[in-house]
Amino acid sequence: MTDKRWAFEDFEEGATIPLGRRAVEAAEIIEFAQEFDMQPMHLDEEAGKASILGGLSASGWHTSAMFMRLICDNLLLDSTSQGSPGIDYLKWKRPVLAGDTIRGQNTVLAKRRSASRPTLGFVTFKSELFNQRDELVLEFQNSGMFLLRNPGAAA
Question: Which residues belong to any copy of the MaoC-like domain (predicted)?
Fold first, then answer.
């Protein structure tokens, strides 16, 4: 990158961007579940152990929100991001349990300049979240919109 902020030109197809890591605590799993997803396996350790998840498990939506925080902190808040037109797919592959440490990465699959907005480009990412055993727990694919640093440059 030529300046501190990520702009469209800085993304290279095939490049993987590390997004940091985060510890997952039981109290935050329960707090999120009490507000947004009150299923027993997200509220109680014993109910979680009795479920197919094997322990107190973060809601998939909580896992997605924690991943979004990693993406914001380690990429988007230091970029020219203009948001996203949506997500192509999202898959929860394994439960995230209390005590896990998660880490994320984005891989650039493709990029293209906008045909209708000369200052904007689209970057397609495959986003992956892993636990401390390097097991894939969540993946999704989406495009992000980023401003160009130099819109007048040739494509």
Answer: 22-114
